[in-house]
Amino acid sequence: MLLGGIHYLLPVIKAAHEQGYYVITADNVPDNVAHKYSDEFCNVSIVDKDAVLAEAKKRNIDGIISFGVDPGVMSAAYVQEQLHLPQMGPYKSVCILQNKDLFRAFLRDNGFNVPQARGYASMEEALSDTDWLHWPMIVKPTDSAGSKGVTRVDSIENYQSALTEAFSKSISGHVIVEEFIDKVGCSSDTDSFLLDGKLVFVSFNAQRFDIDAANPYTPAAYSWPSTFPEHEAYLTSELQRLMTLLQMQTSVFNIETRVASNGKPYIMECTPRGGGNRLCEMLRYATGVDMITAQVRAAVGDSTEALCQKPYNGYWAEIILHADKNGAFQGLTISDSLRAKVVEKDLWVKEGDYVNAFNGANDAIGTLVLQFNTQHDLEHALTSQREWLTIHVV
């Protein structure tokens, strides 16, 4: 059973079918694209763990995952534990990883580098506890993904509106306020694989943003390798320590890290699911490591091929295609000035479709996969994107 029905599940369904598995996709949006490719659709809210459990029992499933779908991760872990299915890790540990407030507390209590942060269950509680604030701060829901409800706040005048936005996007009605960690270079948001409690493949990348987008905190591009290779060994060691402390078992993990201006590396997010922006697919292009097939096999208890660390085959980037304004999509233009091989162009909309300005990951309209000969060519392309790429919207 795959929780969710988004576009990013299509390669997971394909991999499962290639292994001969029967695929049930489940959510409460029957028109979602992934349901057209699965063998069966189950209409259930993926955040209702007991309802998901009931449907899983009814269908006698052999495994369950929530790949690229953050709201379903805790339900998947709950069903795994209740039905004694192959597990990503203990349900209690998954709840810690999935809740930004609990996760920050766990990192702090176990001696990890962690930003100062506090969680709140109400607007009144947050507004009455402001003595500790020092600007800038980041305000976000404790349980949302795709940058929904995330705001950087630079003064007390904007604090209440940011809290309102975060509470509106929280599933549980909780938000977290944390100090803004000024980074050196690019932060990293990419996927890694844990097998029987051991990190067997770890990747770091450069997560990039479009400062002119409707929401400048929504990731707009990724590139490999990272901008902080000298810190990767330390972060890998700390990630393995985290996995061991939480007794995590087998899963692909989406992991966000950054190096701060104070020289300290930080683990910002670590969740047992594939990243939503085709990150596993990008790493398969760049290294040949197939974490998607490994994940679906592990989910039903089948052995996975021996995954191992592999180098990047050149310089790679993924562009998250998005519109600058609401309107009708009229196509895209890629200039001949781009010094890269366009490995794949995946458009999810057609001419005339209505598209939204880029306020969150769900506003993406497709992706570009690019391979470069040099790091210089990659950096030039990603820092001058509007010179070679135009999204036409009227």
Question: Secondary-structure map with pairings?
Answer:
Blueprint: E1 2-3, H1 10-18, E2 24-27, E3 40-43, H2 49-59, H3 73-82, H4 91-98, H5 100-109, E4 117-120, H6 123-127, E5 137-141, E6 151-153, H7 159-169, E7 175-179, E8 188-195, E9 198-201, E10 206-209, E11 219-224, H8 232-245, E12 251-259, E13 265-271, H9 279-287, H10 291-299, E14 315-321, E15 327-334, E16 341-347, E17 354-355, E18 366-372, H11 375-383, H12 385-388, E19 389-393
Parallel strand pairs: 1-2, 2-3
Antiparallel strand pairs: 4-7, 5-6, 5-7, 8-9, 8-12, 10-11, 11-14, 12-13, 14-18, 15-17, 15-19, 16-18
Q: What's the CATH class of the largest domain, please?
A: Alpha Beta
Number of alpha- plus pi-helical segments: 12
Q: How many extended strands?
A: 19
Structural shape? globular
pLDDT average, as an integer?
95
CATH architecture of the largest domain: 2-Layer Sandwich
Q: Which regions contain 5 or more consecutive residues with pLDDT less than 50?
A: none
Question: What is the name of the CATH superfamily of the largest domain?
Answer: ATP-grasp fold, B domain
> In angstroms, what separates the terminal alpha carbons?
40 Å
